[in-house]
Design brief:
13 strands, 9-stranded mixed β-sheet, globular
Length: 278
């Protein structure tokens, strides 16, 4: 297990591989934390595109955006077509791009939408079993967008407080990883106090501190006008069971919003502040 590469699912980004000892293990629950319009969905879509291009099978579950909008973002990433131009690309040009990527060995991508607060881990498990039984498809990575509007199949929201409810949701999602031997990723909102902070903490997680307690890995995204001008996003490791997070607590990733792509940049520190350059 210690030396078997199959036990971990690596990233395409060297920085993320560095901080996780070459990827996240299967049977783990991983969180991307961020404020409203901070780029959580874009980051998750970029993850999905990267995993698929490495040959992994991905199930992307959306409780917020419709399936077609998630597909559009992932298509933009893989095909290299800007989001703003997707609607104006001719059918011939689009299909030529599709034919080019079909010549490569990619994993399978399945996108499934559920109603907010109604779909839950049992709904996801049903899709997983159907894919396995009908298509022979085993999923390597589940991506949930996002945990705050995912339901629980064990308790009703009206019967418990938010802390307890989100605790059940997080544990149920984590259990999917154990049941299906896959890695689970989920987006999570920041609370109001952490919304404008460039030094987020686990206590900035909305609704329930039980979610960070359940997670194996937690990465927070922060955006500022200055970072947007240079196409960067600040990442903060809040929790890691994979490596010593203090080795690289804060770092920057490059981001192309039009292509929904995240990429490595060179990081260095000056006066305790993370700087980056291409």
């Amino acid at each position: 297990y210690y030396t078997n590469p199959v036990a971990r699912i690596p990233f395409r980004l060297d920085t993320l591989n560095l901080i996780t000892n070459n990827g996240v293990p299967r049977k783990t629950f991983n969180i991307v934390l961020g404020g409203v319009n901070c780029g959580k969905t874009g980051f998750l879509c970029s993850l999905a595109a990267d995993y698929v291009q490495q040959g992994y099978n991905v199930l992307y579950v959306t409780f917020e955006m419709r399936e077609e909008e998630i597909a559009k973002r992932i298509d933009a990433n893989i095909l290299g077509l800007p989001l703003g131009e997707m609607g104006s690309v001719s059918e011939e040009e689009f299909m030529n791009s599709i034919h080019k990527i079909r010549q490569k060995t990619f994993g399978q991508l399945v996108i499934q939408e559920f109603e907010s607060g109604i779909g839950n881990s049992q709904s996801i498990a049903h899709v997983m079993r159907e894919l396995k039984n009908r298509d022979g498809l085993s999923i390597d990575v589940i991506i949930v967008d996002y945990i705050g509007i995912c339901g629980s199949f064990k308790v009703s929201h009206s019967s418990v407080n938010s802390y307890t409810y989100q605790k059940y949701v997080a544990e149920e999602l984590r259990n999917l990883g154990f049941t299906f031997d896959c890695a689970v990723w989920a987006g999570m909102q920041q609370n109001r106090s952490g919304f404008n902070s460039n030094s987020p903490e686990m206590t900035d997680a909305a609704d329930s501190f039980a979610v960070p307690a359940t997670a194996d890995f937690m990465l927070a995204l922060s955006r500022t006008e200055e970072l947007d001008e240079v196409n960067k996003v600040l990442c903060t490791q809040l929790k890691s069971r994979y490596a010593n997070k203090s080795d690289l607590t804060r770092f920057c990733l490059g981001v192309n919003q039009e292509l929904q792509q995240y990429y490595d940049v060179q990081n260095y520190q000056i006066g305790g502040l993370v700087q980056s350059q291409e």
